[in-house]
Design brief:
Length: 66
């Protein structure tokens, strides 16, 4: 049982291609190493409506508040 009902389909995969769920920030695949991203990477991800960075798990939407 999951504590949150995240609609992201990657939760149903045995081997998700991303480390972090972009919608809830939960770690999907522990086998993928954590990445250190550039600010430009986070801007691109947030433009794709990702709430969390799929590489490092940082919450992206908070950056919009400066
Ligand atoms: Zn999720
Ligand atoms: Zn990141």
């Amino acid at each position: 049982m999951r504590k949150c009902k995240c609609p992201n389909k990657n939760h149903n995969l045995a081997f998700p291609p991303i480390r972090i769920c972009p919608q809830c920030g939960e770690i999907l695949n522990f086998m993928i190493p954590e990445n250190s991203c550039s600010a430009a990477t986070h801007v691109r991800k947030s433009a794709q409506n990702d709430a969390y960075c799929t590489d490092c798990g940082e919450y992206l939407l908070s950056q919009m508040h400066g």
